[in-house]
Amino acid sequence: IGIAMLENGCAFTAAFGAGNNKQDDNAELGVYRNNWHMLRTYCDHFKGAGPGEWFTRGQEAHNDVGVATRCQRQLFDTLGPDQFFSLQRGGLGNSGAGAEYGQYVRRYTDFAQSHMTDGMATYWNVVSM
Question: The whole model's pTM is what?
Fold first, then answer.
């Protein structure tokens, strides 16, 4: 939830059009602004989708907060915090430590993790049911 609030203010809706002026694997979708590459690679719901399906299949992640949240949890659990935030904040090709956005990613990670609470885990468990 903290990540969605950082991306969209207090509104728990995507405050931008699908893709956020990007397309294919770089398209940003949903309240968490995850890129389509992350969603189709690491979220079971979208595995097997191609880069060009961001506008058709990706609409589900963009418009359905339940799908977006289940994928968010799966992405975070699969990748771990460092790789997750590196890909989510820095985009494709960002290796994290030492990369162009490394310091930015670290600040974002530290802030987000410092605001994660049991309430977030409780919300994820409810949405996953």
Answer: 0.68
CA 67 to chain centre: 11
Identify any residues that bridge with 29 across adjacent strands, giving them in sequence order. 34
Q: How far from chain centre, in Å, is Cα 106? A: 16
Per-residue DSSP letter, 16: S
Rounded CA gap, 41 and 18, in Å? 18
pLDDT for position 18: 75
Q: What is the pLDDT of residues 12-43, one digit of tens each?
A: 555 567 767 788 988 888 888 889 999 999 99
The total of other beta-carbon atoms located within 10 Å of residue 64's CB is 15
SS3 (DSSP) at 109: helix
Q: Which residues lie below 8 Å from residue 63, measured CB to CB, with a gap of 6+?
A: 14, 18
Render 54-101 in DSSP notation, one character per residue.
Answer: GTTTHHHHHH-HHHHHHHHHHHHHHHHHHHHHHHHHH-TT--STTSTT
In the numeric block, which tokens belong to residue 116? 């994660």
Residues 116/2, Cβ–Cβ less than 8 Å:
yes
Cβ–Cβ < 8 Å for 7, 33: yes
